[in-house]
Amino acid sequence: MKLGRLIVLVTSSLLLAGCSLPFGQKKAGVQITANPQASVFMDDKSLGQTPVYQNGLKPGTYNIKITASDTTLTPWEGKVTLNPGVLTVVDRQLASDPTKAHGYTLSFEALTNKTAAEVNLISFPDTVSVMVDGAPVGFTPFKSDSVVSGAHTFTLTSPGYQDMVVKASVQSGHRLVVNAQLAMANVTPTPPPLTSPSASAPGPSVDITPLPKQATDAAVLKPYVEILPTPDNNHLKVRSENAIGNNIIAIVNTGDKFPYFKTQDGWHQIEYQTGNKGWVSATYARLVN
């Protein structure tokens, strides 16, 4: 299939405590933008139309809702944590089809080590490819303490989704947190290639319908692996190999427990069905001995 590769360009300008925030280190700020222009509500309190800028707020977690006047567009709603001395940036592109909507939240978290700098990239969907300044560095969720302070370009790509490019600065003494949602790309289907009678038959199809959720009192002998909450609708992919690729063989549910076999390179091998083994990312799975 042929995928459209529209690049969404995001430029962040975050002000840190000790730089130029007018509300001091004990208060927080938020900047909210949307396309098209939309109404903003914070904990059900109206903040007016975008763009919205609020400062002098009490740090904490708030529920933010962005609603366009065009009722055919799906509103966005989510919880955003505002940290002291930091301006958190929220930007959303609304769409009638939620899969076509995209956006991001950018913020900083203070580190104990004032000379260190960290980056934490989270995305939906998960396991999105990450490049920093054009160099591949891994997949989301991506965490690093080796990205030097200064301006950087973060590129998020995944098959079937539009690319997202985020330009943001990494600051000493802080962790840059980027939470991005990618939009699905427009797909133009292509006819399957013609095959001759001598061509090999296609392999068996894989059913990736989520497995039934286990009963809450289901008992699994130790050691076992428990599936943790994920950004992917509380489902976790099971793979035939301990690596990202076109190797998904099943989907399991948050909270379910499975017999454990071994751990390798950040992956746990489990028995997801009787007689069937697969690998799950240790990022979203906990080994219980």
What is the gist of this entry?
The chain is an all-beta fold. 0% of the residues lie in helices and 52% in strands.
What would you note in describing this structure?
- The protein is mainly beta and 289 residues long.
- Helices cover 0% and strands 52% of the residues.
- It has strands at 2-3, 7-11, 28-35, 38-42, 45-49, 52-57, 60-68, 76-82, 87-93, 102-110, 117-124, 129-132, 135-139, 142-144, 150-157, 163-170, 174-181, 187-188, 224-227, 235-239, 248-253, 257-264, 267-273, 276-281, 285-288.
- Strand 12 (129-132) and strand 13 form a beta hairpin.
- Radius of gyration over alpha carbons? 22 Å
Shape, principal axes of CA atoms:
globular
Number of helices: 0
Query: How many DSSP-defined strands?
Result: 25
Helix content: under 10%
Total domain modules: 2
- Distance from N terminus to C terminus (CA atoms, Å) equals 44 Å
**Strand neighbour order, sheet with most strands:** 6-3-9-10-17-11-14
Question: Keywords for this structure?
Answer:
five-stranded mixed β-sheet; 289 residues; 25 strands; mainly beta; seven-stranded mixed β-sheet; globular
